[in-house]
Amino acid sequence: MTLDMPASADAFWSIYDSTGIRPEFLIVVLANESGLNPSVANGAGAPYVGIGQNSTAFIQAQTGMDQATYLQQPASFQLTHVVLPYFKSNVAKYGTPKSGWQLYQMEYCPASLTWAPGLDDVITSPTQHTDCAYSANASFDVGHKGYITPRDLAKVLTVQAAKPSVQAVISAVYARRPWLSPEDPVYGATLLSTVARYAGITVVAGSAAVIFMSVFGAPAWAPRSIRRAFS
């Protein structure tokens, strides 16, 4: 990870203060987009660069910089001057995302929040909503269903959220505001309520979630009360 701390941590909080987007949601999204590396350019040759993989046209409009100059800027600059205005504009149109997968949907195809609000709704397919570029993002469709859903985005983010390096960034950001606790970075809310809501089970003593955390402990991004309970 190439974040300039603590400036990047403060930039994540600046985005939260301006948009309501929780840092943990944005961290897992950016981890998947760029590996949290502000000097990354799109490997497929598309004009998307930096920590947020924003378009060079948007970057030029926001900063007046060309691609080469922008890629030399630290993560905190890119977060404040490009990532923030990008999401602020979309939050004004579609509301504040309540989960990491909703934020990734806003990153990938903002307008789809109106027609694909549920985890299993179709965001795009080769013949539907082609403006969301199924072909260029077919890797999201891991099961080769022939379409992409918000659940596909959640699965991708779950991989990122499990990485110790990503968990370390979330912890470092929250260390700047120790009176707050992160939610589940993929599904939002607390870990236990997430399990109940998305796995369709009742969280009680002896449930799969409780047994799992009793053995392995709660993840670093779980609320402090849960981490204490399973430490």
Can you describe this structure?
39% of the residues are buried. This protein has twelve helices and two strands, in the order H-H-E-E-H-H-H-H-H-H-H-H-H-H. With 231 residues, it is mainly α. A hairpin with a 4-residue loop joins strand 1 (48-49) and strand 2 (54-55). It folds into two domains: 7-161, Lysozyme; 189-231, no CATH class. The model is unreliable at 191-207 (pLDDT under 50). The chain has helices spanning 7-19, 23-34, 56-63, 67-70, 75-94, 100-108, 112-115, 150-161, 164-174, 191-199, 208-216, 224-229, and strands at 48-49, 54-55. Helix 1 crosses helix 9 (164-174).
Q: Which structural class is indicated by helix and strand composition?
A: mainly alpha
Rg (CA only)? 18 Å
Going by CATH, the architecture of the largest domain would be Orthogonal Bundle
Strands of the widest sheet, in order across it, are: 1-2
In total, how many beta strands?
2
Count of separate DSSP helical elements = 12
Main pleated-sheet profile: 2 strands, antiparallel
Element-by-element helix/strand order: HHEEHHHHHHHHHH
Estimated helix fraction = 40-55%
Mean pLDDT reading: 85
Tell the overall outline: globular
Distance between the termini: 27 Å
CATH third-level topology of the largest domain: Lysozyme
Count of structural domains: 2
Low-confidence region ranges: 191-207
CATH class of the largest domain: Mainly Alpha
The percentage of residues in β strands lies in: under 5%
Produce a short descriptive summary:
This protein is mostly helical and 231 residues long.
